[in-house]
Amino acid sequence: MTHKITFYPVGNGDCNLISFSDGASMIVDCNFRQEAEEEDSPYFDVWKELTSEKLNTKFGLPFVDAFVLTHPDQDHCRGFAEKFFLKDPHKDAPSKSEKDDKLIVIGELWYSPRVFSEHSRELSDDAKAFKKEAERRMKLWENNDANKNKDGNRIRIIGYFDDEKIKNLPDSVKAFPGDTVKSLNGSSRKEYRFFIHAPFKDDIEGNDRNCTSIVFQIKFDVDKTSDVGKVILGGDAEWRVWRKIQEATDDDTNLKWNIFEAPHHCSYTFFSDSRDNEPEQSALNFLAYREGNGYIVSSSKLIKPNTDNPPCQKAKNRYLDAMDDKEDEDYFKCTQLKMTKVMKCITP
């Protein structure tokens, strides 16, 4: 079995499924549109494919080993409250109706508390549901519950925090920028690992919520060869975040990528504050870490030559300019054209 990452076509939003060679899986963000379930809908029914074809089964429900919410904007967590099983499956077994609804059980929840504490008044119902589920799982550790480190209850805290209750959690469930995470859902992983880039402890000038997005790199081994594939995902992180990531990273291998998801749905904020500005040099420097025929993926609606931002045609042009084969758009993918699947991990 090979590694595979699927970028689903959800318009200006994010929902990615990573299927690892050992059978584990990870969903990064979700944008489950209710209208996608309607007959003749123009939207791809991501949830239907996940629950009928892609995920394993546990507790009589679809099961994903980990769910990562990069940040709580609605286009990154739409449908979370309705489509996931948000209880302890060991104490509160799924009902028949929950099984009929195919609610997804999350083995391990990746949670960055900082953005939630700073923007609690702005949260959507789905974001509030995610925060409540994270707090439920942390409470199990606080109470030393016997089920705290079992499927459906695990949590991983990403980044810095001020909450004393979180500080009391064991180091094994925390990860900070500069850390390499070698486990997933309670098991050590030999064929892949996660390098955490952000969010940082200190404030970064700019859009606060986007500047606290989780940013991480996944390194994949293939056929016993280490680090053959490298994927970097970063939610809606703006150019200042990417500049600071480069300043803070000592080992350049943690910046390299074969697949890079264009931040904020290919808006110009990866390059500068305004589309009228020239790209920041730090943004261009980051794109130079591309390995081989690396792919850039825009999780967005169709990119057109208009004033939209996101997605921004000018940003797409800047990405193409940074590629070696800039006359060839084969390595720039927009999810809106069709469901974009990049198989195996692109080999340099």
From TrEMBL:
UniProt KW Cytoplasm keyword: no
Keyword Magnesium: no
Keywords tagged on the record: Plasmid
InterPro entries, A to Z: Competence_DNA_uptake (IPR052159), RibonucZ/Hydroxyglut_hydro (IPR036866)
PANTHER family: DNA INTERNALIZATION/COMPETENCE PROTEIN COMEC/REC2, RECOMBINATION PROTEIN 2
Protein name: Metallohydrolase
